[in-house]
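Z., the sequence and structure:
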Amino acid sequence: MGNSTSFFRPLRLKKKNKVKLGVEEGAHAVGVESLWRWKTLKHLEEDLSESGMCDGDITSPLDHMERELNEGHSEESRQNEELQPEGKSLEDFNLLSLLGRGGYGKVFLSELRGTDELYALKIIKKDRILADNTIDNTLMERRILVLASKNPYLTHLFSCFQTTHYLCFAMEYVNEGNLSHHIPCPGGFDEPRSQFYAAEISCALMFLHRNEIVHRDVKPENILLDADGHCKLADFGICKEVLQDVKMTFCGSENYVAPEMIQGQKCSTSVDWWALGVLMYEMLTGCRPFDDEDWLKLCESIIEDEPEYPLSLSKNAVSILKAFLKKDPKTRLGCEKSRFRRKEEAIRVHPFFKTINWVLLEQKKITPPFKPLITTKTDVTNFKEEFTREELTLSLVNNAIIEDFSQKEFQGFSYINAME
């Protein structure tokens, strides 16, 4: 991405961005109809607001953001300056392309004005956070992004800032897209490549777990590849801080949800190792181990069925898949009692990883088996065309909801990472 130190230098602003307001389409991890049906299951009685999966859109016709970006001396901008003691704002960025969209906001490929530095700029709406009471989740995401600078396999944060109506994360731009874009179907990757990715993802998860954080949404879409071919675990929006097994609110993406979460049992890091097992199966075969268009049948399959293991898989590959996909989390690889002080050490010594030097891996000194082809720094061909071809817009917000709450709810959000 170039020398990121320019991010912290004072900028002489040029012509401001012209970003047209539009209506954001919600992106659901699980459809509304499926969730309604799922609530009929006796094991799920908790509110799903924590996960933010039942997102609808608020379409109040406000033009405050357009004024904010195009009228530097407006009252809106003066309010933003009060919220932004560090001086970073949306006016510092040129928005180049849409990379992704979720229930709370969008992620843009952006360029820092006056430089050639590229960032993934995540812009989320305060009104949705306030309406769904997910402020704690957002602050948790900020905390993890700050912490992520200490691990090479987590996406890194360079700065976060806010406007009157939006919270913004300026993160490193990982330009080779996510694993769902790269996994061949059918067939999957060969075992050395799958092993390498699984080891780097394991390293990221172990780091989070040592810091008492459960990711809860490990899936191909949240594993990014950088220009050298290394993995980056992304999207910490539904992470949870846990000290021990607890009964978690149902969340995550349906095909990767662990059976103990479906059954409403107490759980913690076990849900991440189950999801990694599902992801590894998909990498090795090109197919999901549990897949059904009917949500209830999918849940039943996750709880009751055993996956089929192709004869093409090695003995060690089948062994580790079975170990990660054990229905009982107490006997699952990474969770079971063993001779190791840390249960997760059993993952490192599993025969599937026998050729991995974990010391070098943690230092990011192992050469990836695959290096993506890059045409230009701003190439977005590895991202979904439904996003990259979309007109650059920012979603409308419901100003009334924001006004009902104090901006003090977001006090201390702004941050510049001097480590990057």
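Residues 290 and 301 are 6 Å apart (CA to CA). The longest strand covers residues 93-101.

Let me know what you think.
H.
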